[in-house]
Amino acid sequence: MQLLSQQDEVGKKTRTTILRSWLLLYAFVGMQLGWFLRPFFGAPDSQFELFRAVKGNFYLDIVRAISEILGLR
């Protein structure tokens, strides 16, 4: 993108904002997808379950873990 932006300065800030927003969106989607695919990637000694009950999401579990670390819970 920087190579293209060197040639055309008009709209450089807009293109950079769009790219950063796109990357942030894909990061959030990727985190949630990784959370959802936990049965396929995890501890080798745990039992495999193809369909299991979904308990919350990635973001709620992170908040829960931080609150336990800080002793708020």
Which characteristics define this entry?
73 residues, mainly alpha, 59% helix, 0% strand
How would you explain this protein's 3D organization?
The chain has 73 residues and is mainly alpha-helical. It has one domain (2-69). It is 59% helix and 0% strand. The protein is built from three helices and no strands. The chain has helices at residues 2-7, 12-36, 58-69. It is elongated, with a radius of gyration of 19 Å. The protein starts with a helix and ends with a helix.
Q: Between the first and last Cα atoms, what is the distance in angstroms?
A: 45 Å
* Helix/strand order, N-terminal first: HHH
Compute the number of strand runs.
0
- Helix-and-strand structural type: mainly alpha
- Biggest sheet layout: none
Number of helices: 3
Overall pLDDT level: 80
Whole-number tally of structural domains: 1
Helical fraction equals 55-70%
Radius of gyration from the alpha-carbon trace, in angstroms: 19 Å
**Poorly predicted tracts of residues:** none
| Shape type | elongated
What secondary-structure arrangement, pairings included, does this model have?
Blueprint lengths: L1 H6 L4 H25 L21 H12 L4
Quickly describe the structure:
This protein is mainly α and 73 residues long.
